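ok so for the tutorial part 2 we go from a plain amino acid sequence to predicted structure tokens. step 1 is just haveing the sequence, like this:
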Amino acid sequence: MKNIRIVLIILALLVLAAVTGKSQTGVDPGNPDTLYIDSVVAYTTGIGIIPVSFYNDEKLQNIEITLIHNSPDVKIDSFSFSGGRLDYLGNKSYAVYSDSSVIVIYALAIQEDYISTGKGLAGNLYLSFSPTITAQLVTFDTITYYTPQLIEHATTFKDTLPFPVLPFVPQVIKGYVDIQDTPATLDSVWVESIVTNPKKQIAVDVSLYNERNTKNVSVALDYGNDSLLHLDSVVFTGTRGDIANRNVQTNRSQHMLWVLLDFGEATPLATGTGPLFTLHLTVDSLISDTTLIIDSTTYFTEGNNTFIVLTSLDGNEKIKPIFNLGEIDIDIITAVEDITEDGQLPTSYTLSQNYPNPFNPSTEIEFSLPTAGWVTLDVFNILGQNVRRLVDQKLSTGVHRVTFDGRTDRNQTLASGIYLYRLTSGNFTQSRKMILLK
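step 2 — the prediction. this is what the tokens look like for a chain of 438 residues:
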């Protein structure tokens, strides 16, 4: 009876908070959890897509995100969880209020299906624009919003412990959509899209197609405001930008980059296509499966954006080229590394013991293939249930390595215990045991 009374009291307090619209908030139990609203470029005749990401260093029971923008010409259409960290949850939804300027996003984990720790995409916010919209910068920020039912909505995360749990307010990094006039030419700047894994160093080309001789090229980029990509260097060797005088400015705290290439009137960049420079980046080690975006932006001042300038033969015309963003697809499940040394190809199938073993939180599994072929690598619990497919793809002859992070296909953390991993390729099958110890 005593326990029942306690539960009833807690429920009564929650109902009272909902009715009065004055919910209490707790304290973030660890490092500051963070909500990141990305910054992107869109065109007046198109649509806007804004990635929304978050970081949490403790398991969460639920998340509520409330966002607002400041333009009557912009309409919030929808929010997609597809491909994000919350996609596996059955209890998630969103609601749009206030003439399509406010959106409230919910995600609730039930029973033991908690939102695991990590960094990555929550989902994508989709926008549409009025037919009369003009070029403008539209800010997206958080807000505490009251519905007609007097229910308060704010950006809050709710931890799993201790009980009872009060939601806490994460830090919020606001973003914007830079709505630009649609370019009138086919001149284009684009960022390469690649698939990679956590902890990897990657090289991403930024390319240009120019229809006429060009004396100046300016490229301003936002490589994600959520600390998941780290810029190491900008390399011009072997690119079209190698012969230009260069001005490179970076702001790593805001994940922004501006590159100005001056080819000169006498030696302009000839008509053509190809990379202008290469970004060398490092992917964060704590990241989960997600897609990161490298987009165009404005680097602090109005003139520092993406444009090209033609020569005096074309009236020194300044053109805003079409911009195509790049996507960095982080894929943990297919994180297969080819570690074969030249001239040392294996002559037989081998599945090695994982290392370290026991492991926490991750371990590496190495295997050898004497011939190319389709490979599956699965993890099973002690009951024989398949909890994770690590590899399901065609691989070349050689020695390969894959990292297992102790999570299921649904990104849930596995409990301590004995697990089996099984390699299958052609007629070859082999299994080994490993121990997850927390």
